[in-house]
Amino acid sequence: MKILALVSILLCGGVLLYVTDYFPVWGDPASPASLHISPHYIQGSLKDTAVPNIVTAVLADYRGYDTMFETSVILAAGIACFFILRVSSNRRPDAKLYRHIPTGITLRIEKGGREPLGSTEFERIDFDWVPYDLIINMTCRLVVPFIQLFALYVIAHGHHSPGGGFQGGVIFGAAIILFAIANNLRQTVQMMSEKISALLSAFGVIVYVGTGAVCLMLGGNFLDYAALSPVLGVDAVHARSLGIFIVEMGVGIAVTAVMVWIYYNLSSAGRQDEGL
Amino acid sequence: MTMDAFTTFVISKYNYWAVVVLIMIGLYAMIAKQNLVKKIIGMNIFQTAIILFYVSSGAKSGGATIPIILNAHGEDGIPVRAMDYINPLPHVLMLTAIVVSVATLGVALSLVLKIYNQYGTLEEDEIRLKIQKEAYKSLH
Fold this sequence. Notes:
The complex is a heterodimer.
Chain A: H1 2-19, H2 32-35, H3 38-49, H4 54-62, H5 64-85, E1 95-100, E2 105-110, E3 122-125, H6 134-156, H7 165-182, H8 185-191, H9 194-217, H10 229-232, H11 236-267
Helix pairs in contact in A: 3-4, 4-5, 4-11, 5-9, 5-11, 6-7, 7-8, 7-11, 9-11
Chain B: H1 3-11, H2 14-32, H3 36-57, H4 89-119, H5 124-139
Helix pairs in contact in B: 2-3, 3-4
């Protein structure tokens, strides 16, 4: 079986390499991919949208439909993870571990036992959790706000430097996931509940689609941000620039929330109680 | 094969060689490995190969820089020439493809988690054996 797989894959690779004979060489400025429509984007994007980063301009303006549906795909992935994994949180675990903070003693409380709810001297810990690592906790507490700030910078500066909604959203989501890994899942869910992350991921898509719909109502085409110029009070070119920014914010919110939502469900197998 | 032909086939097209090697690694993992997580890793390597293929097709030699226009809000009148910037289109397409691949990875991992909870293993042949046993039991 493995020999068969190896032979067929070597054949497949050989065919692919044989076909590269017809392909342009590395870095050829006259390759077909660089001749057809890309000069139009390179020369026109600054005039059309006042955005120096051509990738951002093409992503959110020329190819706005594509990006809108990519964002919906991400939302659909978050919803799919939810429906595959989520189990009812009413199903209580068999036993719980509580640590008495002043003495460091861990208590195991079986089902039906009295839990020290509301007491500040006890904290709930996970079964597979190494308790209390001061260095990791402190480092993450210091690092997380800076990662979040950097994520906002990446989203906001996507017009002038590499960046944008997708990248910034993933960085922001990574900061929250880092917090969840350094502390525990329950604490993170208390700060950003599952309901909020689900609503935010839908809200991000709605911001994108809503911007397109507002353009439609103001008399332009769907996602033609030039129609927003009377509302924003700028000329048509700068209205496109601002429209791209609004849309990128929507993408960033959706991507952040979906990353966090998928992490919540994956790390705890849908229980959202004890997890990584 | 003369030296010249070798140069054009291998050295000036080394990006395609890298892509084909990555595709072969990914395909082999997807076909030959029994473990489902290894199959998913193979799928991701395959996706990476496709992303590398697209992005490398946008490269331009001869002093072209990243697709961000220089001095965009400074001196007016500098013409923007297409040969000074690499092709932005593959970057746009792959930017969305990367995020979608992360999303599909999430869905794939959640399916694998569900399979592990059901059958207690991730090896494909063991799972198939357990399914057959259950079908046999339900028949008799």
